[in-house]
Amino acid sequence: MSRILVVDDDRIQRMVASQALTRGGHEVLEAGDGNEALESARVNHPDLIVCDVLMPGLNGFQFLAALRQEDGIAGIPVIMLTSMAERAHMRIGMNAGADDYLAKPFSFDELTEAVSALLAKRRTLQEGLINSMNTSFVTALEEQRESLAAQYEQRLVREIGARWNVDANGDAELRYDHAVVLKAGIVGSLSQQATSSKDVNALVRRAYDAARDTLHLFNAAHLLPAGNDIVAVYVDEPGSIRVRASVRAVRASLGLLQKLSQLRAGDAGQAAGDARPAASIALHCGPVAVLRMSDPLHGGPDSSLATGTTMQELDAMFDSARTSLWAITASPAFVGTMASQLETGRSARATPMGGGEPLDVIEVLSLR
């Protein structure tokens, strides 16, 4: 429903126009002259004005000129009514800013059709303006977002660069020409016997504690997490009278198997016929680099990582031990460092992940 202001000094003409528009479903306001109409337009903001031309005081042309000068109501569409059919009067009305012209006498249908057409035209213009404004607004927002994003990225890059430059020398690298490396899988066979995630978490925590204690007991130089597994690095210090690294690694392996077997038996016992060892362990030796990785950007705790061909070969041996259900697997290079101190068993071949030459692996049973 639209609000329409009818302006005419003739009460009968006002009543006729108002009745026609009310039947058309519009809300109708009335004014008897131009001054009254101007005040009503300021207060009520009608959607459209139907105005007679010939009125005492402020006539229709003067009212229209005054209307077009006032902010807030200047855009209200106006239909001029007149009994004068001369083209000159029509031109005056259109030049003054009238949107349509209707000659008296007019029928109800003529008036309602003219009003409906003008209101529809106004709605179309408003929708077009709104769409245009929305498009411009969205475009402006997108441009602003891209500008802010670019500024943020530039600042972030500067901040990150500054922090990495300051702490670039904070990472340490230890290189060992010859180290003994041990990789142990301590979770698999234990977690399968737990009945709930809470039990699994408690069991894994106890297994890791036991593994760290045992591996440290035999003087591991580094203990490194490797997912659900753990890696220990043993080295021979020049001039040291300690037991050789290879012997300590074997003793640590045997001690770890004993600890985890006790842990498994103490919690749920080993199922009858279960041939899985308490842990899968691989032993190898060769050049190894241990990297200490810091996080200067986020300030998190440092972590360490062992790298090199020796570690890749160790991973292949470890996978072979887990698949073959061997408790301890060693490379021929490692077994060669132990001379006759090892009791060995079966042998097999292991293929490194991603291809490469197959590796010989040997089952280790015990120390002699």
Number of helices: 10
Summed up, the domain count is 3
Query: Class by helix and strand content?
Result: alpha/beta
In angstroms, what is the radius of gyration?
47 Å
Main CATH class of the largest domain: Alpha Beta
Compressed to H and E, one letter per element, the order equals EHEHEHEHEHEHHEEHEEHEHEE
Distance from first to last alpha carbon: 103 Å
CATH topology of the largest domain: Alpha-Beta Plaits
**Uncertain regions: pLDDT < 50 for 5+ in a row?**
166-170
Please describe the biggest sheet, giving its number of strands, its sense, and whether it closes into a barrel: 8 strands, mixed
Tell me, rounded to a whole number, the average pLDDT.
82
Summarize this structure as a short list of keywords or feature phrases:
single chain; 368 residues; alpha/beta; Rossmann fold; Alpha-Beta Plaits; five-stranded parallel sheet; 10 helices; 47% helix; 24% strand
What's the helix and strand layout?
Layout: E1 3-7, H1 11-23, E2 27-31, H2 34-44, E3 48-52, H3 60-67, E4 78-82, H4 87-96, E5 100-103, H5 108-167, E6 172-185, H6 188-191, H7 197-217, E7 222-226, E8 229-234, H8 245-267, E9 280-293, E10 303-307, H9 309-324, E11 328-330, H10 332-337, E12 342-350, E13 359-367
Parallel strand pairs: 1-2, 1-3, 3-4, 4-5, 9-11
Antiparallel strand pairs: 6-8, 6-9, 7-8, 9-10, 11-13, 12-13
